[in-house]
Amino acid sequence: MKYISTRGNIHPVSSVEAIKMGMVPQGGLFLPEEIPTISLQQLQQWKNLSYSQLANNIFSLFLKDDFSENEISSITRNAYNREVFDSDEITPLKQLDNQLYIMELFHGPTGAFKDIALQALPQILSGALEKLSITNQLLILVATSGDTGKAALEGFKNVPGTQIVVYYPFQKVSKIQELQMLTTEGDNTHVIGIRGNFDDCQNAVKEIFSDNQFCRYLLEEGYEFSSANSINWGRLFPQIVYYFYAYLSLLKKRQIELSEKINFTVPTGNFGNILAAWYARQMGLPVDKLICASNINKILTDFFQNGVYDRNRPLVSTISPSMDILISSNLERFLFEITDRNEAAINYWMKDLREKGIFELERNLKNKIEEIIFAGYASEKETMDTIQKIYKRYQYLVDPHTAVGLKVYNDFQNLYKDQTKTVVDATASPFKFNQSVLTALIDENNVKNKGELILLQELSNYSGLSIPNNLKDLNEKKIKHNLVYDKKEVRKSLQDILEI
Ligand SMILES: *Cc1c(COP(=O)(O)O)cnc(C)c1O
After folding, report:
1. 235: which of 164, 209, 415, 430 lies 20 to 30 Å off by Cα?
2. Mean pLDDT (whole number) for 432-437
3. Which residues line ligand 1 (CB under 6 A)?
4. What is the pTM of this model?
């Protein structure tokens, strides 16, 4: 299977080339030339597969031209096992009531859903380097709003032939997120704070990718770029697997009939996770609505409601920081697909976005999208209230991102009285955002000014859940990274750490 650009500006390339490049050098995102489809019979046959077996089957659809069956099954077995994830099911499903289920995507090494793709991507990239006979070091640049950074650092730590550089918005991630990143070991890991917000980090990385002169200079020094953000197709397609897995779990537990449609609710930032759900739907998974949940940085809600994407607004820091994003990169892929792959339209909109910070859809297209996507948002207070309400009603603890999803699902429910079974993605462990979660549950004064590690223990005492292993020993770990740069100094930061 070949990979093409959303902007039609590159000849089709192989999967390993697309994943190695990360994005199209002239701008544009890679996606497969054809979307594979899965029949209902096949779904039925997949019902009893383990997560890693299912991943194996789905990975094969996208990688089989370049990787052997053995190679693919070795990747999925290494990524999805009980040593890496603290659940046999990898992404276990919890039932809250007759029609509401939570898919826990946070059982990986860093407590956020990004682990699922980032346990596979480094292996795929290593394979790609070998197949493309690349002897240069691969320089993985990552912009993070908090969770991708640590997940990527863990995935790439000590992977031969790679250097991983993570840019995070300095002082704009949770304390736990920051500690997780700054204590990363490994001799190929680099963490850099940027004075700015996530969009500044993401823009800086994208700009470097398309700076030919700087790329050539690095190439002469023996480095080539790649990306571990969801702009990289290799980050995106592994996420398709858990949507299938959730459906098959419901089928196995006889909660649904084969071919019965279900909804997915996804707390959304860069539009990567929800796009993976859309691809699952497109591949034939019986899915009705995709519910796109935002925090008060509700650019996507406005877009889906009015057809106007307008990023001329301030980015606000929230208690769901991994969704504090105004440039949802993967929307480009979605728009390409929903326009039946109209690259001219994409070029036109992206030009408007670049030059005016705004673009607008025609009404027909907006209506077409509305049949699939319901979008809404949660304010900060609504997010806190939801954490409390869900705990009271179901004794189930959610993090602020997941709470945003549940709030918007509740809005959808109130509006449509929909009876469809719905799976809400739980994108992070509540322990990762213990301060907000505890503040929602107990008197604020008992939370204020307490250290992160005390709060971890208090949340554990309150909920009776044990602290995830990966967070338990954070305070014993040494801080290994301490660099902070201005957003204009990203090139210099690379020269400094690579000593070139
Ligand atoms: C990254 C992240 C999101 C947003 O996912 P996208 O794929 O960027 O839309 C939501 N919640 C958490 C906890 C995250 O880490």
Report:
1. 430
2. 94
3. 112, 114, 147, 230, 267-273, 322-323, 401, 427-428
4. 0.95
